Amino acid sequence: MTAPNFESLAHDIKLWAAELGFNQVGITDTDLTAHEPLLANWIKQGYHGDMDYMARHGMMRARPHELLPGTLRVISVRMNYLPEQAAIASVLSQPNLGYISRYALGRDYHKLMRQRLKKLSDRIMQSAQHLVARPFVDSAPVLERPLAVKAGLGWQGKHSLLINHKQGSFFFLGELLVNLPLPIDQAITEEGCGKCVACITACPTGAIVEPYVVDARRCISYLTIEQDGPIPLELRPLMGNRIYGCDDCQLICPWNKFANASQEPDFMARDNLHAPELLALFAWSEPHFLKQTEGSPIRRIGYRRWQRNLAVALGNAPTSPAIILALQQQCEQAKTKEKVIDEMVLEHIEWALAQQQQGLANIGRKTERLIRAVDKGMPNHARFMAADNT
Asked: CA dist 271 to 59, 85, 262, 274, Å?
């Protein structure tokens, strides 16, 4: 192919990508040398937590051409995922409901986007038969956000997520590595965050340790999804009712007021996950969990982590006899041969039960103080002040 043909092909690639449901496409080279020191320092600080593969792959994440020898360009794509009536704030404000990151309410995006990228690759091959290509959607060590910035899809916000001035940050990213010398799109050179630090101050656990740097070990998304073991005691009360992921840094971001709902049917919210009761989810058996999360990204964390996350949320919920009973039943069953509960999960259930029982004791003390106030003939307003000041 001659150089002018590559100009035309790049134009066609963007049209074909739009037909496949991608909301934006950009093309860039593979040079990420400027990001290698940042990646090395992030790993050195241990911010990757238990994600050993981050360190194991080393600088390959910043060298796409090592993943697919001969790679000259990266076709970077984004696909909006925000479902209609996302109800982020309303679910977070109801502590008896379980909050699931909005990206996980529908079908698992990994397979969907990878299949679409494969179709895009097949279409390109019809015009460039010597094409060598490989699609990625969180499936290989690739620094997808810096690549997307270079491809003109947005800028990296202080929460480390990519932000687009028309769609905020509620979208998925994917890449198609190709061996074609396609023309390169203009990178985003000016980020739009300015002096805003809303995402940093809004993070429940203080995971954004400095602008553009996230300590995964404190991030609720990491804790509820990636971490396999126990959640640190000091972080549990800060997690609230977030049982799979966290959207707080996105919820507070001013740019997300421009976010449009996804038009992809597979990303529509499932009724059983949109605003579920914590106790209802806690009652799921493992087979029921697998059935209800079939085709969902939630399924990959497994029943063990699911129960762990629910236990923390129940411990953070308002004191309730129903919650106490459910937790006690799980503890009692763990001591029988009828049901075996993982020790790590049981520890979280016992923690949640202790939290609930402490709440019940606090209510009892308030009640006793109020009774004493009544007995002493205190004025009404003083009684309530005495009851609250425990």
From this structure: 42, 12, 17, 5
